[in-house]
Amino acid sequence: MLLEFPWLSLIIWLPIIGGIAVIASGEQNLELTKRIALAYAILTFVVSLVLWFGFDATTAEMQFVERSAWLPALGVEYHLGIDGISMPLILLTTFIGIFVIIAGWDVINYRPSHYMAAFLIMEGIMVGVFSALDAILFYFFWEAMLIPMFIIIGVWGGPNRVYATIKFFLYTFFGSVFMLVALIYLYFQTGSFDILGFHAAPLGLSAQILIFIAFLLAFAVKVPMFPVHTWLPDAHVEAPTGGSVILAAIMLKIGGYGFLRFSLPITPDASAALDWLIIAMSLIAVIYIGLVALVQKDMKKLIAYSSIAHMGFVTLGFFIIFAIFQRAETAGAVMGIEGGMVQMISHGFISGALFLCVGVLYDRMHTREISAYGGVINRMPWFGAFVVFFAMANAGLPGTSGFVGELMVILAAFQADFWFAFLAATTLVLAAAFTLWLVKRVIFGEVGNEQVAKLEDLNRRETLNLGVLAAATLAIGLWPKPLIDVMEPTIEQLVQQVQVSKLPSAIAVDDAPVAGLQP
Amino acid sequence: METVYLTIVLAPLIGAIIAGFFGGKIGRVGAHSVTILGVGIATLLSLWVLSRFIWHDEQAFNGTVYTWMVADGIRFEIGFLVDRLTALMMAVVTFVSLMVHIYTIGYMADDAHNWPEDSRVGTNSYQRFFSYISLFTFSMLMLVMSNNFLQLFFGWEAVGLVSYLLIGFYTVRESAISANLKAFLVNRVGDFGFILGIAAVVMYFGSLDYAEVFAQAPALADTQVAVLGGVSLMTLICILLFIGAMGKSAQMPLHVWLPDSMEGPTPISALIHAATMVTAGVFMVARMSPLYELSTTALSFVLVIGAVTAFFMGLVGLVQNDIKRVVAYSTLSQLGYMIAALGASAYAAGIFHLMTHAFFKALLFLAAGSVIIAMHHDQDIRNMGGLKRYMPITWITALLGSLALIAFPGFSGFFSKDAIIEAVGHSHIGGAGLAHLLLTLGAFVTALYSFRLYFLVFHGEPRMDHHTRSHLHETPWVVTIPLIALAIPSVFIGWYAIEPLLVQNWLGDAITVKPEQDTLHHLAAHWHGQREFIRHGMQAAPFWLSMAGLVLAAYYWSYVLQRNPKIDVELQQRGGWLTHLLEDKYGFDDFNQRVFAGGSQRIGRFLWKSSDQRMIDGAVVNGSARAVGWLAGVVRHLQTGMLYHYAFAMILGLVVLLTLFVTL
C-alpha cells in the first residue's frame, strides 16, 4: 500500500513547489528564505530514501510506476518508474541537491531567493529526467533542465558568462534536436511514446544507425565526450560554485543515463556496429583530456577536464561490452556497465566535492588561478586535508569510491582487449599526475603571498558539506556491495537485451537503407 | 583466531584515527601513547601468532572478513590468509614499527622547529606523524595478511598513500613536496602494470582469491595470449605484476623515487623506505610463487632486474655525501639482492634477506637519525667525523648494522646474502650467469660504501663547526633503546633462522618451487650446521671481495684521511667520467624530467591550444556560433530575447529535419 503512493511524483514536484515557495517568500527575510530552501532540499532527500528502502533488488522490472494519460490525442503519457539504473542516480540528485543549497548560503548576495529556487526547480526536473518512461515526458524534462542551468550561469556566473551560456546552449540544443527527431520517428514505428515500447521495437540496421547517431549527438554533448566537450570547461569556469557542482555531479550523468536507457536497448545492433567509435572517443577522453588537464592554469578548468576524462571511463564501460560480445564472450559485460554506473555515482561525490573546494578558495580569494595560490595548508589545515582526500579519490585510490568504477571498467576492458585496458589504465598515472600536481601547487609549499597568508580555515557549514561528501566517498569505496546489488538485476537484464539482435532477418539488412526509414 | 587477526589489524588503525582526528585534544603524550598502545598490541599478538606457528604447528588461516562486492559473478572480498610466510612478515612489520614508534618520541621531540612560526599545519605535527605511522602499520598489515588480489592492491596503494603523506610531511619544503609527488607517480607507473596483471588474473582465473588462483594455475600453464604477438599467459601475468613490484620495491628503472624519499623524517625512512613497504614487492612475488614458477621467462626478467639494481645502485652509493642517501642507495642495492633471489626461485632466501635486512637497515637508518639529531639536522657526512667518542651506543650499534650489511661472517646479513649469491650461482635460467657475477661484485661495492660512511661519520677528526661540536652528545634513551633492540636481531637472527628457513623448509606450503628450478636444495643437501656454512662462505669470492672493500675503505677513509683530509674529494675527482656518471645517477632523473614530465606537458599544451581551442572551438563551435548569430540577426526584428531565439531555432530545425527524414 505504501508503494502505491506516487512517490516519484512527490520527489519531482516537491522541490519544484519548494522553489516557487522560495521565490514567493521574497528577499525580505533572507534567513527564512534560505531555511525554507534547505528544508525542501532535505525533505526531498528524505522522501527519496523511500526509493532505496522500498526498492525490490531482485527484479529488473520498473518499480514505483505511475502511469496516466497526459495528451491522449498524441499518445503521450505521464509515465514514471525506476529500475536499478535510475534509482541510484535519483538518490544522487536529491543528495547533492542539499549541498548546493548550503554552498550558496552566505556567498550569493544577488537575489538569493531566485538562486535557491533555480536549484530546487532544477533538482525536481533532473529527477524527472531519470524517472520518465514516456519519451515526450523525458524530452520535456530534458529540455526544461536547460532553463534553470542557463539562468544560473547567466545571472550568477562569472565575467565571461555570456560566451559560456551561448556555447553551452548551442551545444546542448544542437544535440537534443536530433534526439527529438529520433523519438518522433520511434513514435511512428511503435505507435506510442512509451520508452519500454521503444526497447521492443524491431528496427533495421540503417534505421538503428541513424537513431543511434541522433542519440549519440544528444548524449555525447551532455557527457561530454571528445570532441564535443569544449563547452564544459567554459561553463564550469563561469558557473557559480553550486552550478558547477550540479553540472558535474548530475547533469553529466544524464548523458550516461541516456546511453543506458535509450541507445543500448533501442539500437543494440547499431551500438554493436559503432562500438569502436565510442570506445575510441572514450579512450581519447582518458588520455588526451588527461594530458590537457595537466597543463591547465585555472583550477576549475582543470577539474572540468578531469571530469571529462573520468566520464570517458563511463562510456568505455558501457560500450566495451560489444567488444566482449565480439569475442563470443559475456564475462565482463555486466561488470563494464556496472563499473560505468559506479563511476557516475562516485564522480558525483568527488567532482562535486572538488568544485566545492574550489568554491571555498574562490569565496575567500576571488581567483581560480593556480598560480595565485601556494601553501594554503599553512593557513587552512583542515581544508588541506579534505583537498588531499578528494584528490586521492579523484586519482582512484582504493578505499575511495573513485577506485571502484575504474577497477571494474579496467577489468571489463581487459576481457575485451588487452590494449583497451592498457590505454584505460593510463589514468592511474595521468589522473594522479594532474590532480596531485594541482594539490602540490595550491595546497602545499610555503605561503604563496599576502592574500594566502590571511586565509581562514573552513567554517562549520563548509566542514559539514565536505565531511558528508567525504563520508559518502569512503562508504562506497569501502563497501560498494549494496550499490552493486541494487543495480545487478537491471544491468543483467540489459546485457541480455542488447545481445539479442533486433534485425528482422539478414535480408532486411540489405535493403534497409531506404526501407527501414519509411514510417 | 579471526578475532586475534582482526585485533592485530585494527589496533593500529584505531590508534591512527584517535591520534589523527583528536591529536589537538589528547596532546603529544596522548597521541604517542595511544598509537604505541595500538602497535604494541599488534606486535605482541603477532609475535604470539608467530610463536604458535613455530612451536605449536598452527595451521594456516584463510577466511573472509566481509564481501566487498559481488559483480558479474566474481566475488571481491576482504579477508585474511595467515600462514607461515604471513606470520613472519607480520612479526617483522609490527616489531620494526613498534621500535620506530618509540624512537619517534625522541626524533620528533622538537619538530616545531621544522615549521614556519605562523604555519597552522605545524601545530600538532607530532601527533599527525604518529597517526601516519600507525596508519602505515595498518596498511602494511592489510597488504601482507590479504588472501586475495583486491585487498593486496588495496594495501599496496594504501602504503603508497601513507608514503606520499610522510615523504611530503614537511609540506613547506619544496624538495619534500616534489619528492612525494615523484614517489607517488613513479609508484603509479608500477601500479599500472599491477592492475593489468590483476585484470589478467580475473579474466583467466575468474577469481581474485589466492587459493583458487593458485589451484588453477598449473592447468593454465600452457595457455597462450594473443598480446604482443603471443606470449604465455603466466609470463604476461607475472611480468605485469612484477612491474608493480618494481615500483614499490624500487627496482630499475622505477627506482628513482626512493633516494628522493629521504626528504621524509628519518623514522619513516627506516620503517617505510627500508624495512617494510619497499619489501612489499619481494613479499608479493614470494606469495605469487605458484605463478612465477610457471614462467621461466618472467623469472629471468626478475633475476636480471634485481641483479642489475643490486650492483649499479650500490655504485651510486659511493658518491653520495648525504648520510641518508648513502643508506638509501644501499637499500636499493639490497632490495636488488632480494629480487634476484626470487628470480632464482630461492623465494625463501629472498624472504630471509628481507627479514635480516629489515632489522639491520632499520637499525642503520635509526642510527643515521640519531647522528642527525646530534648534528642538529646536518646530514652531510663531510661535516661529521669522530662521533664515536660522543655517541658510543649509536657508534656500536651502527658498526654492528654495517657489519651485518656487508655480510661479515656470523652476522645476520652474512647468512642471508651468501645464501642468495649461492642460490643464484646454482640457477640455470637465462641471465643467471650475469646475475651471479653482478651480485658477487656487489659484495665489494657494499663493503666499500658502507665503511666509507662508517669511517667518515664515526672515525677521524671531527669536522663539524665548533658550535655543533660543543653540543654533541648521545641521544636520549627513547632513541638508543630501539637501536639496541634492533641490533640484537641484526647480529643473531641469521644464525638462528637460516636452518629452519632455508634448510628445513619452514615456510612449507606458503611457497611453491618446482623441483627442477629449486636452487636452495644444494644448500640443504650440503648442510652441516651454521659453523660449516660460515667456514664454507669464508672460502668463497663474495667474502674476499667484501673484506677487500672493507680494507680499502679503512685505508682511504681512515688511514689516508688522517693525513689528507681532502682525500674524499680527490678520490671523486680521480673517478673522472665515472664519478660524473654516478653523480648523475646514470641520468635517469634528467631523462624522466625531460621526456616524461616535460614531454607530457608539451603534448598536453599542444592538444589544448591547437586541437581544443583552435580546431574544435575556433573553427567548429565558434564558426557555427557566428552562423547562428548571423541567422539571429536576420530574425531579430521578429522578436528579441534568448528564449524566443531558442524556440524559433528549435522549431525551424525540427521542421527541416522531419522533412529530411520523411522524404528520404
Automatic annotation (TrEMBL), chain A:
Residues 132-427 form the NADH:quinone oxidoreductase/Mrp antiporter transmembrane domain. The chain crosses the membrane at residues 6-24, 36-55, 85-108, 115-133, 139-156, 168-188, 200-221, 242-264, 276-295, 302-325, 345-362, 383-412, 418-439. GO terms for molecular function: NADH dehydrogenase (ubiquinone) activity; NADH dehydrogenase activity; ubiquinone binding. Residues 66-123 form the NADH:ubiquinone oxidoreductase chain 4 N-terminal domain. It comes from the Bacteria. Pfam families: Oxidored_q5_N, Proton_antipo_M. One of its GO terms (biological process) is electron transport coupled proton transport. Keywords: Membrane, NAD, Translocase, Transmembrane, Transmembrane helix. It is found in: Endomembrane system; Membrane. GO terms for cellular component: endomembrane system; membrane. It is a multi-pass membrane protein. The keyword Transmembrane applies. Belongs to the complex I subunit 4 family. This is NADH-quinone oxidoreductase subunit M. It comes from Halochromatium salexigens. The lineage of its organism: Bacteria, Pseudomonadati, Pseudomonadota, Gammaproteobacteria, Chromatiales.
TrEMBL record, chain B:
It is a multi-pass membrane protein. GO terms for biological process: ATP synthesis coupled electron transport; electron transport coupled proton transport. GO terms for molecular function: NADH dehydrogenase (ubiquinone) activity; NADH dehydrogenase activity. It holds the Pfam family Proton_antipo_N. InterPro entries: NADHpl_OxRdtase_5_subgr, ND/Mrp_TM, NU5C-like, Proton_antipo_N. Residues 146-427 form the NADH:quinone oxidoreductase/Mrp antiporter transmembrane domain. The chain crosses the membrane at residues 6-24, 36-55, 85-108, 129-146, 152-172, 184-205, 225-247, 268-286, 298-319, 326-352, 358-375, 395-415, 435-457, 477-498, 541-561, 643-662. GO terms for cellular component: endomembrane system; membrane. It is found in: Endomembrane system; Membrane. It comes from the Bacteria. Residues 68-113 form the NADH-Ubiquinone oxidoreductase (complex I) chain 5 N-terminal domain. Keywords: Membrane, Transmembrane, Transmembrane helix. This is NADH-quinone oxidoreductase subunit L.
